[in-house]
């Protein structure tokens, strides 16, 4: 049996004053990281933040697209989409959870 995989859309703001999961940004989750977007440092910071927030090992997350841009897709192994949404919403204080109601 294979582990469940889920793809997560993320919008990243590198070089921020502090690292944080901000909340929803359209159909993506907005993340701020202090690292600069050079030599993959910001990408790695995003993956570490998501792993910590979701209580997953860092090795369970893979950046599958957006290596050089702000819009990224991260593949997570071992957790379903409903649990991911609940944990991210809880960590960001985003009461909307699954839908952006702007």
Write a structural description.
It is built from two helices and five strands. By secondary structure, it is α+β, with helices and mostly antiparallel strands. It has one domain (5-92): YggU-like (Conserved Hypothetical Protein Mth637, Chain: A), CATH 3.30.1200.10. β4 (61-65) and β5 (71-77) form a beta hairpin. The longest helix is centred in the middle third of the chain and has 14 residues, at 41-54. Residues 97-102 have low confidence and may be disordered.
List its salient traits.
Conserved Hypothetical Protein Mth637, Chain: A, five-stranded mixed beta sheet, 2 helices, disordered C terminus, alpha+beta, 25% helix, 102 residues
Quickly count the helices.
Answer: 2
Q: Taking Cα atoms only, what radius of gyration do you get, to the nearest Å? A: 13 Å
* Helix-strand pattern: EEEHEEH
**The CATH homologous superfamily:** YggU-like
The proportion of residues in beta strands is: 25-35%
In the CATH hierarchy, the architecture is 2-Layer Sandwich
Overall spatial form: globular
Number of domains: 1
Helix percentage: 25-40%
Query: Could you name the CATH topology?
Result: Conserved Hypothetical Protein Mth637, Chain: A
User: How far do the termini sit from each other?
Assistant: 40 Å
Helix- and strand-based class?
Answer: alpha+beta
> What composes the largest sheet?
5 strands, mixed
Unreliable stretches: 97-102
Beta strands, count: 5
The strand order across the widest sheet is: 2-3-1-5-4
In round numbers, the mean pLDDT is: 90
CATH class: Alpha Beta
